[in-house]
Amino acid sequence: MKTINIQKLVRKNISELRPHISFRDNNTFENPFLMDANESPFGEFNRYPDSTHKNLREKISAFKNISANQIAIGNGSDELIDLIIKIFCEPKKDSVLVMNPSFAMYGFYAAINENKVLQLNLNDDFEIVKEDFLENIKENQPKILFLCSPNNPTGNSIEDIEFYIQNFDGIVVVDEAYIEFSEQKSSLELINEYPNLIVLQTFSKAWGLAGARVGIAYSSLEITNLIYTVKSPFNVNVLSQNLVLEKLDQIEDFKSNLNKILKERDWLRNQFLDVACISKVFPTDANFFLIEFKHAEKVYSTLIENEILTSKRFPQIPDCIRLNVGNRNENETLINALKSI
Fold first, then answer.
1. The whole model's pTM is what?
2. C-beta neighbour count of 178 within 10 angstroms
3. Which CATH architecture best describes the domain 13-247?
């Protein structure tokens, strides 16, 4: 197990902060009269949600075989990314290291917190160059390393993730928003070995609950406690927590839908072979494709005209568009529109 002093990485004002603790969530009463939070006594959703997410964490704990005390729930992974930066990065002083290209929100929340964003430019295969990584951390000593695997928007899984965790003495965040679509091993199996590791997952993608906004951070107990110290008291609403609890009771439905998406991904990959305007389809471990087109601007505009919304990735990634796997009707409509170009 790697030895690292997490408290030395935490901002001083955060380490001195005391969490806002809901009295009712930290006591076990059978049928209390709830007259402590100025709520209305009427209505189906008149009570504040459990601020500790106790039931949800225990349900996830049983599903993932990870201690509930090592699980933190956020209002989407975005909130967790924001909180992690606020906990560890001193504004105007510390920096974060991100892959380029990768998920834009790492840099967005760092910028809001007035932290410098350092970039690791990926090679032609969208992999990190290890020598560049080692040189960057030696020269700049960033506080947080964000690794997205499978990576958004490129779709590939990052090779040898443990190398980067081993060689980084700050906080390592591995964002696994698309892990269910991949055959790669999750970094969850490493969290008890590396106390500075945080693994993010979400119910927004494979679980089909993007509208519920529920993200999960798996980490050491020490980091989990820090997240629950800094987060807002009632950050995940009752409806969202209940939706996730219901989904976790419907595992066979989840597996069935996941399998359908993977089959549609394979179907699309085969269909792309017959589309003349496509130059290259990059390998993907996610529920989307990064595709290089011969006339990307024209393709993007034509799809818009057909009311097909995609993600324009050029000019950052030349001539490329990212598009996600839909149902068969959506996918057939996409292929027909591409073939017409």
1. 0.96
2. 23
3. 3-Layer(aba) Sandwich (3.40)
